[in-house]
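Lab notebook page, bench 4
Experiment: in silico fold of construct C2
Operator: M.H.
Input chain length: 324 residues
Purpose: comparison with the prior construct
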Amino acid sequence: MVLRTLLSLLVAAALIFALFQWGGLRWSEVTDALGRLSPLAYLAALGCHAALYAVRALRFQLLLSPQQRPGFSSQLSVGMAQTMASIIMPAKLGELMYVVYSNRVFGLRAENSLAILFLSRLFDLAALGIAMGCACLALALQEGMPGWLYPVGLAALAGGFVLLLLTLRGSLFTNLLRWCAQRVGGARTKLGAALIGRLQSASQALDAVRGPSVFWRCAGLSVLAWLCIFAFCGILGRSLGLPDSIGPLQAVFGAALAILTSLIPISAFASIGTLEAGWVIGFSLFGVDKDLALATGAGLHIVQLVNVVAIGVLGHLWMARLRR
């Protein structure tokens, strides 16, 4: 873990060097962008960020059976701490800290926590794909927009709906993995047999999360979660210096692309460099100067990291108090 984190920091340092050396970014541009951030705008963005934690904690609660469901405060503290781990640790390995934290705080078994973590991320990706697809199709209808927005929008929309349907039967994925492991002879080794057993337990846990009411409520909470994310990015982007020509559709497209690039599994420490790259590409399509886009993207990332670390530290303290 220490080695992976050090490697991640090294990649992050290289990306930061590239941003300033070849991307044309200067510290003065970032500090100027942060200087434009008003206290009111920051508080509004912080409110959206805090609401996101509450919405995701509610969704985790819904995905658990009433017998396994902890108190909301326990679920929220675990989500606060796990989000910091997922941002800071390399290649999104921190996502798996939910398994560790939920077991320590309210005794949730590993297969159950993996199952609801998998389902929640499916809901997130489905909502993101549908949101980006709708934004692309709406933008394609406007004059002067590139023609590729239409097929990209259709593809994103189709992918989002496929992922949404997969949430109805999440065990299809784990059953496929188990079948592949058995076909390659995984059961003949101790590690392979243990993995197949874990996959079978995860499949059973995923099948236990059923019911149209759970599906629709989780889908609604996922939409609400992404509204919080897009509002956070829109408020900060505009306050940090994005021009008035950037409307809600452009903001959704640019923010969604930045989030997609930050989800790359090889992303470095805190997704430094990958998020900014998506932000610059997304808003450059709408005529935003590359230097301005890079400065606002870096400023937004700094604010996000400050929030995530502060909330994550509070989450760890809260978890320690709950365990005592």
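Observations: The chain has one domain: 28-323. Residues 28-323 form one domain.
Next step: discuss at group meeting.
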